[in-house]
Amino acid sequence: MPEMPDDDLSTTWGAAHGTVGGSRTALSRDEVDSALNDAGRQGGGDRFAGVERLIHSGLVSYERLPMLEVVLDRLVRILSTSLRRLTGENVEVSFEQMRSLRFGEYMNALPLPAMLAVFKAEEWDNPGLLTMDGATICTLVDVLLGGRAAEPARIEGRGYTSIERMLVERVARIVLADVSTAFDPVAQVTFALERLETNPNFAGISRKANACVAARMRIDINGRGGMIELLFTYAMLEPVREVLLQHFMGERFGRDSIWENHLASELMQTEIELEAVLHEQTMRLSELLDLRPGQTIMLAGASTAAADLRCGGRPLFTARVGRRAVSLAARIESSLIGDAAQDA
Hints:
Blueprint: H1 6-16, E1 19-20, E2 23-24, H2 29-42, H3 50-56, H4 66-87, E3 91-102, H5 103-108, E4 114-121, E5 126-133, H6 134-144, H7 162-182, E6 191-197, E7 211-221, E8 224-233, H8 234-237, H9 241-244, H10 257-268, E9 275-277, H11 285-289, E10 307-311, E11 314-324, E12 327-335, H12 337-343
Helix pairs in contact: 2-3, 4-7, 6-7
């Protein structure tokens, strides 16, 4: 690397550190605050200041779950049929988006008034949320009660009546039953409704910092409707996470059936060395060093004792040693493969 003159080196260092001609040009506090606030506004929304926006932006890393998107697409078709049968109207259900976020952030952004249905995945023993906004509730109540107004009256400044809660509960049970049906290709799971809540503070199913997946769907009934959202915690989806990571049903990660079959066939043709151990005897090192050619070693075992057939030092079979024609032979009497596998 060619050497740089001292003047060029100092000029380069000064440019990298905000100095020109030896005089440092540091940013003032107001300039730093202005830059961070601009970063916060560019991040979208003003709920966090600049520094907090930079910190919170990296908290949730979205893990794409291709099979979950397939399940939701299947749910859209099933739910459209179920709601048409329930309302007797032309119902269109469309999938809007799926996003990953913190549970506390989701609860703080809920539009009110809303109805929150807390459900539980019985086989996975974890809860989830089904959320319906005010427009969806008004439309469903109006249609189920026989109304045909162009724009249903919105619920403002009052609680939901018992009739409205019963109708919403009925719709929620239908939606959860369809969610269970949509999950059938992935896993057999039952989503059971536990309770309805209108206050988000009473629908806390997870810690605020836990990561969740929220799937939003739009319901359109003759030009009116609203949004419903399904919230799954990552803890709920953990039992079927490997299946949800697949791009298509039955995908195998890093496995090739052709290569597996070829490897199995080649292993079956592999030659191995099998040794028969008639007897083992423990000797002192001094006795072993005193052995000379022609000496006889007396074995304690009987000549009719069974021998161990071993491969790689591991006992596999118990055999009886004999002679066939001019060759020594061993007849297998029992297998020790199970015991060898347990020892391994």
